Amino acid sequence: LHDRIGQGLTTLGLMVGALDARLPSDSRNVIGTLLKDMQALIQYVVTHVRDIMAELRPPVLDDYGLLAALRQLVSEFSKPTGIAVNLSGVDPDPRLPPVVETAMFRISQEALNNIAMHARAKKVEISLSAASERVVLDIADDGVGFDTSSIADGGEHWGIITMRERAEAVGITFRLESAPGAGTRIVLEVEQAAS
Fold first, then answer.
1. Most exposed: 23, 73, 160, 163, by fewest CB within 10 Å?
2. What residues contact residue 85 under an 8 Å CB cut-off, 6+ apart?
3. CA distances from 175 to 50, 52, 53, 79, 193 (A)
4. Quick check: 97 pLDDT over 60?
5. What is the pTM assigned to this prediction?
6. Distance (Å, rounded) from C-alpha 139 to C-alpha 128?
């Protein structure tokens, strides 16, 4: 996104600006507004591409680790939803490989998104622990829950299917526990040494 789309849009914005600067004044009067609108649209798209990049892999994940990225995610989740989230834990030491950290972060995003859309939860508990050469990320809500057999029956649980596939692709064990009226728990577990 950064190398191809971001740089391309920045270059396009510069080209439109150069075109605007080279136009004779009589031509600028005719199409100047259109060129300014084009520059504004390009800037708008650049801003949204940066936002998408930050959602896919936030800079805080690279700079400060998984727990800090989860802290930021929780803060951004709680404000608009009003759902209380308790986050606890420690970052693994040494850190997990970037691909594993990213998968755990993205699965957390999807889990919180599902909670906001479907769970009718009042609170969420997230814990990140590293002990006995295993790293465990646990996300549990007190929402309405659901019958997990509906996933196997091809129900509309694309988010859960995507989370499971994302986890398995990088060696994370994915476990889902839920029942009607009993909330939902997602547990991600990975061997620290093998990661």
1. 23
2. 74, 77, 78, 112, 123, 124, 125, 126
3. 32, 28, 28, 28, 20
4. yes
5. 0.74
6. 9
Tell me if 125 sits within 8 A of 137, measured CB to CB.
no
162's CB contacts (< 8 A; 6+ apart) are 110
Mean of the per-residue pLDDT values of the chain: 89
Peptide bond into 94 cis (omega under 30): yes
Position of tokens 């400060």? Answer: 64
